[in-house]
Amino acid sequence: MSFKEKHIDIENPIPPSGVRGQLTVVGAGPGDEELITLKAIKAIESADVILYDALINESLLKYASEDVELIFVGKRKGCYAFQQEQINDLIVAKAKEKGRVVRLKGGDPFIFGRGAEEIDYVRQFGVETYVVPGISSALAVPAYQGIPLTKRGFSESFWVVTATTKDHALSNDVALAAKSTATVVVLMGMGKLPEIVRIFSDENKQDTAIAIIQNGTTENEKVGFGTISTICDVVEEKQLTNPAIIVIGDVVKERVQLTSVLKEINQNL
Length: 269
Hints:
Layout: H1 3-11, E1 22-27, H2 38-46, E2 49-52, E3 69-72, E4 75-76, E5 79-80, H3 84-98, E6 100-105, H4 115-123, E7 128-132, H5 137-144, E8 158-162, H6 173-178, E9 183-187, H7 193-202, E10 209-214, E11 222-227, H8 231-238, E12 244-248, H9 261-268
Parallel strand pairs: 1-6, 1-7, 2-3, 2-6, 8-9
Antiparallel strand pairs: 4-5, 9-12, 10-11, 10-12
């Protein structure tokens, strides 16, 4: 039985009247091509059209069929292949034209991935909608560096915050997070790093440990460790840039020593 047949027969045996086309929003994971779910691979294999983002590992596209239509709709700072409104319209158009559209997003599509926004938009046009969750970079990238976001005696909770709002300003939640004792994971924050440092310094957390992980879980991963008072110098020294994740809290000092995950696992297979 094909993925499409299983997906519809089990979860939606009687499609709503007037439905034309199908959208499956798929999480591609944090970067390592093997950190993707089996369900996500099946969705890619069954797709007629794949709209994919800049942060996915493009090697995942090898699972697509030969006649699939691949459309890059990624966004980088200052560079947009498509505006969000254009992506929304493109999903609807391709779903009605070709049938099964997969929207392939980095990490998990419901964590700062606009997956819910796209689903809300296309449903008004009668498109069937599904989601395949992904492994969020907010969790996996620190883990690959041995950083536990929670650890007994050090951190009882964690925040995951986007640094940049829709208006390109620093999120007010960063200041709220800085007042807590929780681990703070900041996504899309490199352009706001000096502001983030100032906010944590204002809370007398100059000596709090911080890690910045660029291209996490990939072969191009780069890491910088420091404190709130030193991290800007570390970033300059190591030339760290986007895409990167910022982890702030005592758990950074509690990171465990790992054997290289990629090398060790591949050697033992």
